[in-house]
Design a protein that fits this description.
- The chain is an all-alpha fold and about 210 residues long.
- Helix content is about 65%, strand content about 0%.
- The longest helix is centred in the N-terminal third of the chain and has 19 residues.
- The chain is rod-shaped and about 115 Å long.
- The N and C termini lie far apart (about 90 Å).
Length: about 210
């Protein structure tokens, strides 16, 4: 606490009162830019209070800075704990396990969420918006259909010497092989469309 210092014709009592009020406030949750401004206003007021040669203009300027700082006490930084949890989930997701359709949505939402998380001036509204966008992007992802059996069967099918078989059987086999390759290459197939993969397996196996 600083004691009011009165120099010739300069009254610092109002500055002292403003300083005592401002110094008593909890500023631990202020966004970074406001916290820096608040600390600067306090530091300036301390210097003016301690200066016996301070002018009345300097006193009023210090008071104005303190008032502006106190008016900014509502700029509270957002709670990022849930956003951090979602970012951890998203960063742990493997693109190879999901269909490509909505993957870019997740990539963009994750980048935005990380930017908000690192932003010292992000308020609760900013955090909530980034959190909701990332959650929706995570929920939009769909697991790819399991193609392991189809891939294994295709490897065996490609090794078959078709010269040993009749033209009719080779024609059916070739058609099934072409269809199976198309299914294997289709990155949009989700686990909801597993039946399409299973059908390709059955058809190729039969052929």
């Amino acid at each position: 606490t600083f004691t009011v210092t009165v120099s010739s014709g300069v009254d610092k009592s109002l500055l002292q009162a403003a300083y005592d009020y401002a110094a008593a406030q909890d500023t631990s949750k202020l966004i970074e830019s406001v916290k820096a401004m608040y600390d600067q206003a306090l530091s300036n007021a301390e210097a003016v209070l301690a200066n016996p040669d301070a002018t009345q203009e300097e006193v009023w300027d210090a008071i104005d800075q303190l008032m502006e700082a106190c008016w900014s006490l509502g700029f509270i930084k957002g709670d990022k704990s849930e956003l951090e949890d979602l970012i951890t989930v998203a960063e742990g997701m493997d693109a190879d396990k999901y269909v490509a359709d909505n993957w870019q949505l997740l990539v963009d939402a994750l980048a935005d969420a990380q930017a908000v998380y690192e932003d010292g001036d992000a308020m609760q509204g900013d955090v909530d918006a980034a959190q909701e966008a990332l959650l929706q992007a995570i929920l939009a992802q769909r697991y790819k259909a399991d193609k392991s059996i189809l891939e294994e069967l295709l490897n065996k099918a490609n090794a078959i010497d078709t010269t040993k078989y009749t033209a009719e059987s080779v024609q059916a086999f070739t058609a099934a092989l072409k269809s199976a390759n198309a299914v294997l290459a289709d990155e949009s197939l989700s686990e909801d469309e597993q039946a399409t993969v299973d059908e390709a397996v059955a058809t190729l196996s039969s052929a």
